[in-house]
């Protein structure tokens, strides 16, 4: 009660805050005075919480549902829980940049401690990670409660048909950069971690490029432990609405249509029923087209491979993105997450055969054409959106209209839904890719993802395809520590001798689609667009004008076809008036020109 009083005092001293008794749960956090109004919530899931004085109450429960423990407190509590059973093992995925272990709790009926031991029980593995954005930590506290109820409560049967791999804190360094002021739009916990890592990398933009140490550890864990379902727990930003637990996954148009069907037909109905019965309001992921005008509709998101759910789609690992509503209180969000995780274990255990079959079908589908980019289109089905009413007011601060949410529920019937679901750039599936050995960083990234490859043990002369790039567009500023680039790409036939050590990557493998997403230059999450091949856009050899002039005269005298081509080029007034462009035209057609300039050093075998 003293904690609540102190928090109320902090709120009351904010500019413009009215001095009133903290009569509702809206007066729980320091930022409540500046957030939209909130109606009290009560649901059946509240029965999941143990009293604060219970010997096995989690730190979250001990605080009455408003706090989340520190890194040290979290693992001290989990270490104590592990002493009660051999069903739990704690495994370090590796160290963070600041030297903290990224711990994963392995929960199985048999007490497996290694991937090999876990495989021997022939059960599906569910990997749940919390705190990829460490301020959005609901999954940690929900998972601690669920593990407690499995080990010292009455839910041991949850491990009879499934194994749980639980990462309580993924971004561990950011978790310890904790403050009451880190996420102004989120109702708790009292202290929240930071969004990006200690190296300022957003982990949920890092799946494809895998620059961070944390992500490298996670991808290694996925390859080693081979989960059949991957859950990434977040908290939203954005608008106000009635849903408290929203979740989604990639679409039927993606690279894992069988996995999508399982999630849509088997998983979602079971989860939504469980959440509804527990007093929550589940929904799909919510992204408004215009936060100030809901009548414009909602966006349906087809995520790319830089995000967890887009990456799962590319590697045929069914992946669920949970986005709890930031304006709902921490207590409510944690309890909703608990319900979702518990039902996930039940559903995966009961539907494991269908889940495995869907994954295998996607892994060995090998589509002839792969879509790299998508265009937006209106979806055939609208959305009866459970929103919150709002008004637009003229702001004296910004000078423009701002949204004022009223807190009153409002149904917005049949809102239009716009999604990036129309195929745009599509490419044919090569039999294999070849990468010369000097491109070590790109080869290392592909290996990190678990993509199978072999190396040439002797030189080979092959007829292949190579992209010739043009009109490169470099980003004006860096993004996630990289200078991104895009370019036009045209396939050309080449015959060349590849050196010893060249890597060959067949696309007929379980991660063949992921290899295409990472290696096709027009893919938004290709290693090229992430800047791993930027040096090919640097011109390093030149020819002086005094040398080009006589060379051009000689070339024209020796080739009537070249003379005709030059005459045609001169019909362009801009080209004809540009002396340097004319000289460059001849240099590019001469034997002195750098043939590797803007030639993508990844070759395709048809």
TrEMBL record:
One of the Pfam families matching this protein, by short name: Peptidase_M14
Cofactor: Zn(2+)
MF-aspect GO terms: metallocarboxypeptidase activity; zinc ion binding
Source species, domain of life: Bacteria
Signal peptide: 1-20
Active site as annotated: 323
InterPro entries xref list: Peptidase_M14
The Peptidase M14 domain, residue ranges: 67-348
GO cellular component term of the entry, any: extracellular space
Keywords from the named record: Carboxypeptidase, Hydrolase, Protease, Signal
One of the GO biological process terms: proteolysis
Name by which UniProt lists this protein: Carboxypeptidase
Family: Belongs to the peptidase M14 family.
């Amino acid at each position: 009660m003293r904690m609540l009083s102190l928090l109320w005092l902090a709120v009351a001293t904010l500019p413009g805050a009215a001095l009133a008794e903290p009569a509702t749960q809206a007066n729980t956090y320091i930022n409540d005075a500046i957030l939209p109004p909130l109606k009290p919530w009560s649901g059946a899931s509240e029965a999941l919480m143990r009293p604060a004085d219970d010997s096995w109450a989690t730190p979250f429960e001990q605080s009455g549902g408003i706090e989340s423990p520190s890194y040290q407190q979290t693992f001290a509590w989990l270490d104590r829980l592990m002493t009660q059973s051999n069903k739990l093992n704690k495994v370090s995925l590796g160290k963070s940049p600041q030297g903290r272990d990224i711990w994963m709790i392995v929960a199985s009926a048999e007490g497996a401690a290694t991937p090999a031991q876990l495989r021997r029980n022939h059960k599906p593995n569910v990997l749940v990670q919390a705190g990829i954005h460490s301020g959005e930590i609901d999954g940690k506290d929900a998972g601690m409660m669920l593990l407690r109820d499995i080990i010292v409560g009455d839910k041991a049967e949850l491990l009879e048909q499934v194994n749980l791999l639980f990462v309580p804190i993924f971004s561990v360094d950011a978790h310890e950069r904790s403050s009451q002021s880190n996420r102004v739009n989120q109702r708790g916990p009292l202290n929240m971690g930071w969004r990006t890592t200690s190296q300022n990398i957003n982990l949920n933009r890092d799946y494809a490029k895998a620059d961070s140490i944390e992500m490298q550890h996670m991808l290694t864990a996925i390859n080693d432990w081979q989960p059949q379902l991957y859950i990434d727990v977040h908290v939203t930003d954005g608008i106000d609405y009635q849903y408290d637990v929203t979740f989604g996954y990639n679409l039927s148009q993606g690279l894992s249509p069988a996995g999508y069907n399982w999630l849509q037909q088997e998983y979602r109905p079971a989860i939504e029923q469980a959440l509804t019965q527990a007093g929550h309001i589940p929904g799909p992921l919510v992204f408004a087209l215009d936060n100030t005008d809901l009548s414009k509709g909602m966006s349906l998101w087809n995520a790319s491979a830089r995000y967890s759910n887009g990456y799962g789609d590319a590697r045929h690992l069914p992946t669920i993105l949970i986005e709890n509503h930031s304006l709902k209180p921490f207590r409510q969000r944690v309890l909703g997450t608990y319900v979702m995780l518990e039902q996930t274990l039940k559903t995966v255990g009961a539907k494991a055969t269908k889940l495995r079959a869907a994954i295998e079908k996607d892994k060995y589908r090998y589509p002839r054409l792969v879509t790299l980019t998508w265009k937006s289109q209106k979806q055939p089905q609208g959305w009866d959106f459970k929103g919150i009413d709002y008004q637009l007011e003229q702001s004296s601060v910004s000078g423009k209209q701002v949204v004022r949410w009223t807190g009153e529920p409002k149904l917005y019937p049949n809102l239009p839904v716009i999604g990036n679901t129309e195929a745009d750039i599509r490419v044919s599936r090569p039999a294999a890719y070849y990468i010369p050995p000097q491109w070590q960083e790109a080869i290392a990234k592909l290996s990190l993802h678990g993509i199978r490859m072999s190396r040439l043990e002797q030189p080979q002369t092959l007829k292949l395809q190579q992209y010739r790039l043009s009109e490169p567009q470099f980003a004006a500023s860096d993004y996630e520590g990289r200078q991104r680039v895009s370019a036009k790409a045209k396939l050309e036939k080449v015959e060349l001798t590849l050196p010893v050590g060249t890597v060959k990557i067949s696309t007929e493998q379980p991660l063949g689609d992921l290899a295409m997403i990472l290696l096709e230059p027009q893919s938004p999450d290709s290693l090229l667009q992430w800047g791993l091949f930027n040096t090919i856009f640097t011109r390093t050899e030149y020819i002086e004008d005094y040398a080009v002039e006589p060379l051009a005269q000689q070339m024209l005298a020796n080739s009537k076809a070249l003379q005709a081509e030059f005459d045609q080029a001169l019909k362009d007034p801009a080209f004809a008036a540009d002396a340097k462009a004319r000289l460059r035209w001849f240099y590019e057609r001469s034997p002195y020109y750098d043939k590797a300039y803007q030639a993508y050093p990844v070759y395709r075998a048809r």
